[in-house]
Amino acid sequence: MPPDAARRSDRSRRAILVAALELLEALGHSRLTIEAVAARAGVGKQTIYRWWPSKGPLLFDAFLEYGPAGADALPSGVPVVDLKRELRAAAEELAERRFDQVCRVLVHEERTDLVTLLLMPRRMALEERLRTAQRLGEVRADVDVSAAAELLLGPVYQRWFLRTAPLTGEFADAVVDLVLRALTG
C-alpha cells in the first residue's frame, strides 16, 4: 500500500512550523532563514515556499498553532481585577520571546493585517471587561469602550515596540489605574 500523501504533507507542515518556532527562539527574527527552517524540518525550501510566501506568514501560522500556552482566566466579576489581569496577560504575551519575535517579523514585513489578528483577541477581551464595568456602574455609561481599550493597550504596545523600559505587570497595573480614573470620574 503506497504512503498517504495527505498524511505526509501534514507531517511536513507540522515539522516546518515547529522548526520555524525553535529557530526563531534560538536565532531571533533577523537571523532566521527559510533555508534554515527547511534544513531543520527535513524538507526542501520549495516545500515551504509552496505553502508560505515569506517567513512572516509562516511564523504567523506556527504561532497560531503552537503559540502562547496560557489560557485566559474567566472573569472574576470585579472589573478592576479583570482589567488588570487582562492587561498583565497582554504584557506577558508580548514579553514571551516567541510572540515578541513573531510580531516583530510581521511588523518588519509590514503585515499589519496579521499583527492585528494576533493582537485583536486581547483587545476584544478588554472591551468585554469594560462593558461589564459599564453595566455594573463602575465605568461611566458614556465611555466609548473601543477607545478605552485602545487607551489601555496603547502604552503596553508602545513600550513593547520601542523597548523604552521593561514591560512588567506593575506597569500594566499602573496603566489600568490611570485609565480607570479617567473612565470613572
UniProtKB/TrEMBL annotation:
InterPro entries associated with the record: Homeodomain-like_sf, HTH-type_TetR-like_transc_reg, HTH_TetR, Tet_transcr_reg_TetR-rel_C_sf, TetR_C
Gene3D superfamilies in the record: Homeodomain-like, Tetracycline Repressor, domain 2
Sequence ranges assigned to domain HTH tetR-type in this UniProt record: 10-70
DNA-binding region: 33-52
Top-rank taxon: Bacteria
SUPFAM superfamilies the record matches: Homeodomain-like (SSF46689), Tetracyclin repressor-like, C-terminal domain (SSF48498)
MF terms in GO: DNA-binding transcription factor activity; transcription cis-regulatory region binding
Keyword S-adenosyl-L-methionine appears in the UniProt entry: no
Keywords: DNA-binding, Transcription, Transcription regulation
Ranges in coiled-coil conformation: none
Protein name: TetR family transcriptional regulator
The organism's taxonomic lineage, starting at the top: Bacteria, Bacillati, Actinomycetota, Actinomycetes, Pseudonocardiales
